[in-house]
Structure formats: C-alpha cells, structure tokens
Prior knowledge:
Layout: E1 24-28, H1 35-45, E2 58-62, H2 68-79, H3 88-112, E3 116-120, H4 123-133, H5 138-149, E4 156-161, H6 164-171, H7 184-201, E5 204-207, H8 212-227
Parallel strand pairs: 1-3, 1-4, 2-3, 4-5
Amino acid sequence: MTPGAEARSPLxxxxxxPLPRGRFLVLEGIDGCGKTTQIDALAQWLPRSGLLxxxxxxxxxxxxxxxxxxxALRQLLLHAPAEAAPEPTAELLLYAADRAQHVQQRIAPxxxxxxxxxxxxxxxxxxxxxxxGRGLSLALIEQLERIATADLQPDLTLxxxxxxxxxxRRRGERAADRIEAAGDAFLERxxxxxxxxxxxxxxxxxxxxxxxxxxxxxxxxxxxxxxxxLADRHG
Length: 235
C-alpha cells in the first residue's frame, strides 16, 4: 500500500471469514538515529517476509505529515518562520491534531482491513519532545494521547537508541528544522525521555550506532520471533 493509498474493505481468509486486525509497528528515536533507513529496509523486506497474511498490504507512513492535513501541520511545526512558530502548548496541540487525523483517516482503517502499518514516529515522540524536552505536563500529554488515538496502541515500538553526540555528527552541516534547532540541552532531555519511555512502555531497543545492516538484521529477527508462525510456541 503506497503512502497515499486508502485502506480497502476487510480482507477474508479462504473460508470467507474476515482476517484479524493488522499489525501496527512504530519506529522511534532522535533525529539521525537511522529511522528513515530502517523504514525503507522494512518497506522492502516485510512484504516478502511471510509475516503478512495473504492479500494484506503494508502502509508506510509518518508523523507529523501522514495525511494531507498533517502535511500542512508538518510545515508549521518543523519549518515555520520565527514569527509563525507555535509556542510549546500550541505545538503540543498541533501534534495531537496531526495524530487524531492520522489515526482516524489512515491507521485505524488500514488495521481494521487486516493491513499492516509501519509509522515513522507516533505518540512516544510527543512524550519525549514536548513532555521531557519542552517540560510540558506528561499527565496532560497522556490525556491528549488517549483522545487523539482513541486508545490505539502500537503492537510493537522499535526504539533506535543513539547518543546525542553521534546524532549531531550524523546530521552534520545540514540545516536543522525548528525542533532540532532548540539546542543540545533540549535534545539531552529528549534523549533521557526516550530512555525513560522505553522502560515504561516496553519498547524494543536497538543500538543505532551499529551499521545499518546489523540493525536491520536484528529488527528482522525480532519481528519473525514476535509475529512469525512459531511465535506462540516461543511465548
């Protein structure tokens, strides 16, 4: 399923019964951790991995910007000129609006139809950046998360853990977006937030300082173990 495709009607197995709900996978981590590389690798590997049921498709998406509304919000959130930049609370609410549209318009329908969804960021990033980074109330963020997602949770969150110094090196001289430009103290708090969230929410950690091929292999092994045909036997 291409990023702009709409979910189709529910799939059916050979008996004619609807297939179970699809799987929702999320990649999280600071900028430079390799999310784009791993998303691209998974988009190539998952459809031929044997993990998706026959007829199921893979929706690859992102936050912010997974819908037409989200693309407009992404511009405001990441690239707005100084005079139009949202204040922290407004920023939080814009991310929540992006997520609500994303869930209702794309993620939930795809899952209900039996498709799999792979997203570059989800609610964990808001808790890390706006909660731990900006210092906004985590309780308020959790409340907004429940509203925006209608309590939808990923089946699995893959956290690409990378030290800030390596993130900075990888980003090099490229122009920083508005969030990256908030400074190292802010990004240190974000990194600490990801570490705390991973422990609280049971995310799967991957050492993003390794070669991309090693990270991809480790992710593939985990997905087969978690969702493959022998998964139930292994608990």
